[in-house]
Amino acid sequence: MVVMPGGVDIHCHIAGPKVNLARKLQPVVHRFVVHPRTAFTRSGTGGTVPSTFATGYRYAALGYTTAMEAAVTPLGARHTLEELHDTPIIDKGFYVLMGNNVLLYRLLKEGRMEEFREAVAWWLNASRAYTIKLVNPGGDEPWKGQRNANITNLGEEIDAFGFTPRHIIKALIDAANDLGLPHPAHIHCNNLGIAGNYETTLETMRAADGRRAHLTHIQFHSYGGDFGGKPISKAAELAEYINTHPEISADVGQVMFGKATGMTADAPLGWMLRHVSGNKWVNADTEHESGCGIVPFNYSDKNYVHALQWGIGLELFLLTKDPWRLILSTDHPNGGSFMSYPKLIRLLMDKQFRLDQVRSVNQKAMAQTVLLDGLEREYSLQEIAIITRAGPAKLLGLRDKGHLGPGADADITIYMEGDDKEEMFSTPRYVFKDGQMIIEDGEFRTDHAGRILHVAPDYDPKIEQVIQPFFEDYYTIQFENYPVSETYLHKHQVVPTASQEGRIK
């Protein structure tokens, strides 16, 4: 057998207002894809956006015991925590959106950087989040004010604020590092999905200026070609930058063919996907904090762009040298369901299977990649354990996860070793959560609540004198009702910042 720590998903979308909207948008799926109740599990619905109960059970059934919801507005934090409490077995947390926060913009515009950092720390505490999330920084504000407007250049000024996305990116990277957050700023770059966007991605990484930063679903940001035209692969250029800059980490956001659901705080992107797909679409605006777009989607292996996206993800995995800094993800459910992880693992471990798949998809797209050039690399079991467990746990600063050493959480997955790695990783023989056997011989034997993971960085309470007047002028709720109290969290774990090490247990 193969014994590994429980899997850790560093980036997924599983709870909160946007996820619930995505469920409502696809009622037919939830009518016909149903998980029946058993002696140890509750019922739920499936599809690319499963219900809360089904989400927890599906992760556990793959051997995953931790998952991080990747984008939540502060106003959506309470809703998100309700759904995470309702997601069984796994430990979980979320990243709070700050890249389009109007009050932070005002502080940045006025050069009040000390107050800026204090406000960031206050927001992390108020929402009970895990780290800072940036999505298309600077892009949502012009989208809200002018139909179809967006930011396409990191040096472009944001209307009414007089600074650029580069300023926002740098300020929030610095804030995360200065606060000593266990996971650095988690960045969804500008120009997602647009030909030529790899240059924006490189600019974003350079903005880190030697400080830690994590770029998410980097596959969607690895395209060359004329801006807005037909994309080509630039995976090699981005892989080389990551290889030579140890302060940068990323998850891939691999596209997997079949059904998916686009859901993003990048509102202009949602509008673009709506026109590309022709599908029904939801657009949402969360006051002064973010936007949102939701579109059901389907990836076809015969479509040039879809096949290229699939190929670029594999290129990134195969060309990046350090598995500790390039993590497995599908940006669930944007690139595909997390249920496709076993097939993705097989693509990485079995070069002949991978080559057969490469030869079966759109060949014009494959000609734009190096996948037909005889890439021999096959991931070992050790490397799979790193990109699905040890690596994300380390990047998240979760010292009790991702390993089987003394003091670890005793989240353990045991697989029957086999030649077919997709089958092997689809059905673990045993899964333990906190030392308790959850799955035996592929069957659930009990239930488990899991815990909420969050940070609580120190901050000066005087910052509330800056934040409260803004609330009273512009928000639809009372300031006193905004923060999430600790009593609301139930079972939770505070992960200390660098300055709190040794003080918070």
What does this structure look like?
The chain has one domain. Strand 5, helix 4 and strand 6 form a beta-alpha-beta unit. The longest helix is centred in the middle third of the chain and has 16 residues. By secondary structure, it is of the alpha/beta class. Helix content is 35%, strand content 19%. The strands form 6 sheets. An 8-stranded parallel beta sheet has the order 2-5-6-7-8-9-12-16.
Which features characterize this protein?
single chain; 505 residues; alpha/beta; eight-stranded parallel β-sheet; five-stranded antiparallel β-sheet; 18 helices; 19% strand
Short note summarizing the structure:
The chain is an alpha/beta fold and 505 residues long. Helices cover 35% and strands 19% of the residues. It has an 8-stranded parallel β-sheet.
- Helical content stands at 25-40%
The number of helices is: 18
Q: From the structure provided, what is the oligomeric state, counting identical versus distinct chains?
A: single chain
Main-sheet strand order equals 2-5-6-7-8-9-12-16
Shape: globular
Question: How many E-type strands?
Answer: 22
How many domains make up the 3D coordinates?
Answer: 1
Mean pLDDT: 93
Largest sheet: 8 strands, parallel
Can you lay out the helices and strands and say which pair or pack?
Layout: E1 2-5, E2 7-12, H1 17-24, H2 27-32, E3 34-35, E4 44-45, H3 52-61, E5 64-72, H4 77-85, E6 91-97, H5 102-109, H6 113-127, E7 131-135, H7 140-145, H8 165-178, E8 186-188, H9 198-207, E9 213-215, E10 223-224, E11 232-233, H10 235-244, E12 248-251, E13 258-264, H11 267-277, E14 282-286, E15 290-299, H12 304-319, E16 326-327, H13 341-349, H14 351-360, H15 363-366, H16 381-395, E17 412-415, H17 421-426, E18 430-433, E19 436-440, E20 443-444, E21 452-454, H18 464-474, E22 492-494
Helix pairs in contact: 6-8, 10-12, 13-14
